[in-house]
Specification:
By secondary structure, the chain is an alpha/beta fold. It has helices at about 15-25, 30-40, 45-50, 55-65, 85-95, 105-110, 115-120, 125-140, 150-160; strands spanning about 5, 30, 70-75, 95-100, 145. Strands 2-3-1-4-5 form a 5-stranded parallel sheet, sandwiched between helices. Helix 2 (about 30-40) packs across helix 4 (about 55-65) and helix 3 (about 45-50) crosses helix 4 (about 55-65). The protein starts with a strand and ends with a helix. The protein binds adenosine-5'-triphosphate, (3R,4S,5R)-3,4,5-trihydroxycyclohex-1-ENE-1-carboxylic acid and magnesium ion. (3R,4S,5R)-3,4,5-trihydroxycyclohex-1-ENE-1-carboxylic acid binds near residues 79 and 118. It holds the Pfam family SKI. One of its GO terms (molecular function) is kinase activity.
Length: about 160
């Protein structure tokens, strides 16, 4: 089967849901953020602080294009859709699932987060970033699941019912 790519904003649950979806389908799971950290030998906050966001986006594109296009669930980073090249690649190669999550819900989920450099950057307007990205997530998605107030098991069931 075609690989399943989970997309959505920080805190939408891509990493969490990917594990459970892969388990349900009995296929492997990958996460582009984890692959970037493994390949670079650095954490995401280190890459952002030492090399900058542009360098992170370059690594992210290279990692995305190396992901297996069959039999895998792949959690992506929240900004994977920022590059047109990535959007084109996702549309061509994957079954893309958008975990749509409201601003209020995202704020609740990430209240204690310290690992997401953009979330923790006081000069970034996160609400504006979400608003700007929503149309890009929708542009590439084959399936959209609303996640507010639902647990990962329910979200997985809804994904499977739409496949
Ligand atoms: N459906 C859910 N309901 C409540 N909390 C959730 C749900 N899904 C994930 N969470 C929690 O929200 C936080 C963020 O989840 P997760 O890391 O899976 O998001 P993500 O979409 O992978 O974010 P990122 O884009 O930064 O990688 C975690 O603390 C996780 O436990
Ligand atoms: O939304 C984003 O731009 C990001 C989300 C995370 O998954 C990581 O990819 C990184 O922290 C950037
Ligand atoms: Mg994640």
């Amino acid at each position: 089967m075609q690989s399943l790519y989970l997309i959505g904003f920080m805190g939408s649950g891509k990493t969490t849901v990917a594990v459970e979806l892969a388990e349900a389908l009995q296929i492997q799971v990958l996460d582009t953020d984890q692959l970037i950290e493994e390949e670079s030998g650095k954490t995401i906050p280190q890459i952002f602080s030492k090399e900058g966001e542009a360098s992170f986006r370059e690594l992210e594109m290279l990692v995305l294009k190396k992901t297996p296009v069959t039999d895998t669930v792949i959690a992506t980073g929240g900004g994977i859709i920022e590059r047109g090249e990535n959007r084109d690649w996702l549309k061509k190669n994957g079954l893309v699932i958008f975990l749509e999550t409201s601003w209020d819900e995202i704020q609740k989920r990430l209240i204690d987060d310290v690992a997401r450099p953009l979330w923790n950057n006081q000069s970034t307007d996160k609400k504006a970033l979400l608003d700007r990205r929503v149309s890009k997530y929708k542009e590439v998605s084959d399936i959209i699941v609303q996640t507010d107030g639902k647990n990962p098991t329910t979200i997985v069931k809804e994904i499977l019912s739409q496949m």
